[in-house]
Amino acid sequence: MRVEIEDTFRRELSQAMVEAAAADQMELYTNGIAFAGNPRLSVVSAPVAGLETLDFKAILDGRYVLQNTPVMYWYLAGEPLGDRPFPFSDGFYSVVADQQSGIIALRNRNGESVAKGGLDVCIEPPLSGVGPRVAKKAAAGPTVSGKITSVTGTWWPPHIKVCGQVTIKQSGVTVKVKACIDAGF
């Protein structure tokens, strides 16, 4: 019975994520929706559709390709977010990357940045290992996945830290976009 309840909850929350993203004029990779949490904070994350169109050649050349680019869509809920002076509340947020400055912004539905955090973009194999072997591989269809790597939240003092990752694989190259938001008092 518990598994059925959890499956129903995940299905309904996934549908709510898709609907909220559509209202925010974004599409999500529904097969990449991830759930995580602890007793004080729940997070649902999904990669934003369109990441498969990133210019992999530019990335391999060391150029910045993520400029004001939504990479993840998060739903945050929990006790720490209920405190009135906290900078944001329960709800849906876009995680927007700015590779040149090395930051991500957590933006609300109005497009306002409510928190910022660190951004890390890594390439596998490392650039030194990328050469003609990878460049000559037949173009394989890209795959995009996402996950939540850590979640912490305290009620007093109100504080949250959420980290997530989006992985894009194409033609033997993997690009990982990692982001962390750390907010509170």
**Unreliable residue runs:** 129-138
Estimate the mean pLDDT confidence: 86
Alpha plus pi helix count? 3
Structural class: alpha+beta
Quaternary state of this entry equals: single chain
Helix content: 10-25%
Q: Say how many strands there are.
A: 9
Biggest β-sheet description: 9 strands, antiparallel
Q: How large a portion of the residues is in β-strands, by DSSP E?
A: over 45%
Shape: globular
Domain count, please report it. 1
Calculate the terminal CA-CA distance, rounded to whole Å.
40 Å
- The whole-angstrom Rg is 17 Å
Helix and strand succession? HEEHEEEEHEEE
Strand order of the largest sheet: 1-2-3-4-5-6-9-8-7
What features would you highlight for this structure?
nine-stranded antiparallel beta sheet; 185 residues; alpha+beta
What does the model show?
The protein is α+β, with helices and mostly antiparallel strands. It has one domain. Strands 1-2-3-4-5-6-9-8-7 form a 9-stranded antiparallel sheet. It is globular and about 45 Å long. About 5% of the residues have low confidence.
In short:
Helix content is 17%, strand content 46%. It has 185 residues and is of the alpha+beta class.
What topology does this entry show?
Blueprint: H1 2-23, E1 34-38, E2 41-47, H2 56-60, E3 67-78, E4 91-98, E5 103-107, E6 113-124, H3 132-135, E7 143-154, E8 159-170, E9 173-184
Antiparallel strand pairs: 1-2, 2-3, 3-4, 4-5, 5-6, 6-9, 7-8, 8-9
